[in-house]
């Protein structure tokens, strides 16, 4: 009798389980392990500043989710290792429904002291508990042809990238949610909590996105919300594409995250367009232009300022039809600036980098954005910056890619010696120049080795002792499966 009861229970369980599993058409498990070794010298632009006495520069005012610069690890030479580990499970269900879950561990190897007394901080082992934490990167469901055949709906934590990633491509607010790693620009956690509707009317594609950047309390008066509308058109000839977009960030939480009355103090509305095409097979030309409007308030007690900022990106690539596949790219980028990031009553002209995914250099792109310099009036590289870059690449072997970049930076708007004081002396507009070299060797289809070396030479904008050269060497091993 007990045996028959057991058989009945098993049969009943199978009756429920089998239909559930039958709904899953395909399951795929994938992942990656990326290991890095870092060496960095003088990233605060002050030689032998191991005690960390200098300021960390001006926070990125008007940029609600700025890193603002890391005050730690400013010594003459920092050495450490890091691993990014990812496991992703995707499942195809019936009726054009699929799901994706990706979990991540990001950690510096056994880095127990993130505030070492040698670097001017108190001893801390707070990161020991976070070092091996697993965090959720992706978790979304995608439904194709839902309600209407061209419509795809994606709901949940997802990666979002439009165009070349000049405005939307990387959620930098989640780079280091556990506060357990350095080198945040190497983070693989870049996703948005969002709802995305995609209408595919080939060759037209329309995307509409709503993302909750910051909830704070449960009331809507202290949130940061993101709205995106993107229209893309792919031409039949010249590998050409054109798109236009609107990106709106409504920020009610930066100045007063406990507000019960709306404090819309830092709203940024961006209108832009992009074109790219190949006039001949060896040449690619492209350009992007965007304008920002809205409002900015440095503090609740300060006056409200009208935004008016610009971004320009123009580039061209030429490819030679030779065995080594050499190519050269020239690119000019402009982020408009503001000489007063504080409480002035004039219009606010500083470009808000929002959630940019495109970066060009090892150091210059992250100055005062991820890493703080010792110059107390230095502004973030995400704003008030222009640069021109010459980049060359070639493949002497089928599996070996060599790249070299020279980048020259200068400001858009003059910066005064005393932040916010218009009568103080004006700095030179020469930020500096940077040389980067990178080699990538594909050992197999799944394994690659890389080496990146960068050297930044500060320009006349900086003066002693905050004008020493910054350098870095990063080696990597990446495995995907």
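^ structure tokens above, recovered residues below v
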């Amino acid at each position: 009798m007990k045996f028959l009861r057991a058989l009945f229970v098993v049969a009943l369980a199978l009756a429920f389980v089998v239909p559930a599993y039958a709904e899953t058409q395909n399951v795929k498990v994938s992942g990656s392990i990326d290991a890095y070794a870092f060496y960095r010298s003088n990233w605060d632009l002050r030689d032998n500043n191991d005690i960390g006495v200098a300021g960390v520069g001006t926070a990125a005012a008007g940029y609600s989710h700025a890193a603002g610069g890391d005050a730690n690890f400013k010594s003459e030479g920092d050495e450490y290792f890091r691993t990014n580990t990812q496991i992703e499970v995707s499942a195809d269900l019936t009726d054009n429904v699929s799901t994706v879950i990706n979990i991540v561990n990001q950690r510096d190897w056994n880095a127990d002291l993130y505030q070492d007394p040698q670097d001017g901080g108190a001893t801390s082992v707070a990161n020991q508990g976070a070092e091996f934490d697993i965090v959720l990167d992706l978790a979304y469901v995608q439904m194709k042809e839902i309600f209407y055949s061209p419509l795809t709906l994606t709901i949940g934590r997802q990666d979002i990238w439009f165009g070349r990633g000049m405005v939307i491509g990387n959620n930098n607010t989640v780079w280091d949610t556990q506060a357990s790693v350095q080198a945040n620009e190497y983070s693989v956690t870049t996703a948005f909590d969002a709802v995305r509707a995609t209408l595919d009317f080939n060759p037209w594609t329309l995307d509409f996105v709503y993302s909750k950047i910051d909830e704070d309390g449960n009331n809507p008066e202290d949130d940061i919300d993101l709205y995106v509308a993107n229209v893309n058109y792919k031409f039949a000839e010249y590998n050409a594409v054109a798109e236009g977009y609107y990106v709106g960030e409504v920020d009610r939480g930066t100045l007063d995250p406990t507000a019960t009355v709306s404090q819309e103090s830092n709203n940024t509305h961006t209108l832009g367009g992009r074109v790219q095409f190949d006039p001949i097979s060896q040449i690619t030309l492209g350009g992007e232009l965007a304008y920002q409007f809205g409002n900015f308030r440095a503090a609740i007690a300060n006056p409200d300022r009208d935004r008016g900022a610009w971004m320009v990106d123009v580039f061209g690539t030429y490819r030679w039809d030779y065995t080594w596949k050499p190519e050269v790219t020239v690119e000019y980028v402009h982020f408009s600036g503001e000489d007063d990031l504080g409480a002035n009553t004039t219009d606010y002209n500083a470009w808000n980098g929002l959630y940019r995914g495109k970066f060009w250099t090892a150091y210059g792109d992250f100055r005062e954005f991820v890493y703080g310099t010792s110059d107390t009036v230095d502004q973030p590289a995400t704003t008030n910056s222009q640069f021109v870059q010459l980049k060359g690449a070639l493949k002497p072997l089928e599996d070996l890619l060599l790249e070299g970049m020279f980048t020259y930076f200068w400001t858009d708007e003059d910066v005064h010696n005393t932040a916010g004081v218009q009568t103080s002396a004006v700095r030179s507009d020469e930020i500096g120049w940077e040389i980067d070299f990178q080699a990538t060797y594909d050992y197999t289809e799944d394994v690659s080795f890389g080496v990146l070396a960068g050297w930044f030479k500060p320009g006349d904008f900086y003066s002693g002792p905050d004008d020493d050269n910054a350098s870095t060497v990063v080696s990597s091993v990446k495995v995907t499966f």
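The CA atoms of residues 436 and 454 lie 4 Å apart.
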